[in-house]
Design brief:
The complex is a heterodimer of chains A (113) and B (110). With 113 residues, chain A is mainly β. Chain A has no helices and eleven strands. In chain A, strands 2, 4, 5, 6, 9, 10 and 11 form a seven-stranded mixed sheet that branches. In chain A, strands 1-3-8-7 form a four-stranded antiparallel sheet, with no helix packed on it. Chain B is mainly beta. Chain B is globular, with a radius of gyration of 13 Å. Chain B has strands at 4-7, 10-14, 19-25, 29-37, 43-48, 52-56, 59-64, 69-74, 83-91, 99-100, 104-109. The chains are: A mainly beta (113), B mainly beta (110).
Chain lengths: 113, 110
């Protein structure tokens, strides 16, 4: 197992465009988490899945953001009508269960111009 | 929700020195992790330590859950230890998220 994988690593988009990121968790992990990190800050929780069910969404996740995890495997995070404030590192993590060790992917760095 | 505070925010040391990073948290935890963020942004797992003491080479960590703090020790610092260190905590109650501190930026000078 190669760990948590995220694609793309970098994305530059024009304001108003839609973007989609992908996360492939560690294969036996049923929990999958999305976080966002801005410069100089620690990562902030966005949402998480247990298998295919999205169980919690942060207030940071505006209605322009949507996440899916079809069949409880990989996940996608889509941002519609991107804004400059969406520029950040988007991190995905997975774990075997509640309270167990989480492992992070390399992140997708989004720049909205 | 749980609050996580890290200190110091910045630490500059000479190569070979020892360092102690602190993480205070405001609630009971079932998960406490230390990470090192590499220059490309990836969070590298250092320790999963909701309680007790662990050691891995020059690094060790201790979490005193009853007093709500964790310490990360780095001995004989090397320039490759430079970077930002985060602690993150998860609670027993309700949601499953990790709450991160704002990090300690460690700079090791040759």
């Amino acid at each position: 197992d190669t760990g948590v994988s995220q694609n793309p690593r970098h994305k530059i988009t024009k304001r108003g465009q839609n973007v989609t990121f992908r996360c492939d968790p560690i294969s036996e992990h049923n929990r999958l988490y999305w976080y966002r990190q801005t410069l100089g800050q620690g990562p902030e929780f966005l949402t998480y899945f247990q298998n295919e069910a999205q169980l919690e969404k942060s207030r940071l996740l505006s209605d322009r953001f949507s996440a899916e995890r079809p069949k409880g495997s990989f996940s996608t995070l889509e941002i519609q009508r991107t804004e400059q404030g969406d520029s950040a590192m988007y991190l995905c993590a997975s774990s075997l269960g509640h309270g167990l060790e989480a492992f992070f992917g390399q992140g997708t760095r989004l720049t909205v111009v | 929700g749980i609050q996580v505070e890290q200190s110091p925010p910045d630490l500059i040391l000479q190569e070979g020195a020892n360092s102690t990073l602190r993480c205070n948290f405001s609630d009971s935890v079932n998960n406490l992790q230390w990470f090192h963020q590499n220059p490309w942004g990836q969070l590298i797992n250092l320790f999963y330590i909701p309680s007790g003491t662990k050691q891995n080479g020059r690094l060790s960590a201790t979490t005193v859950a009853t007093e709500r703090y964790s310490l990360l020790y780095i001995s004989s610092s090397q320039t490759t230890d430079s970077g930002v260190y985060f602690c993150a905590a998860g609670t027993n109650f309700g949601n499953e998220k990790l709450t991160f501190g704002t990090g300690t930026r460690l700079t090791i000078i040759p």
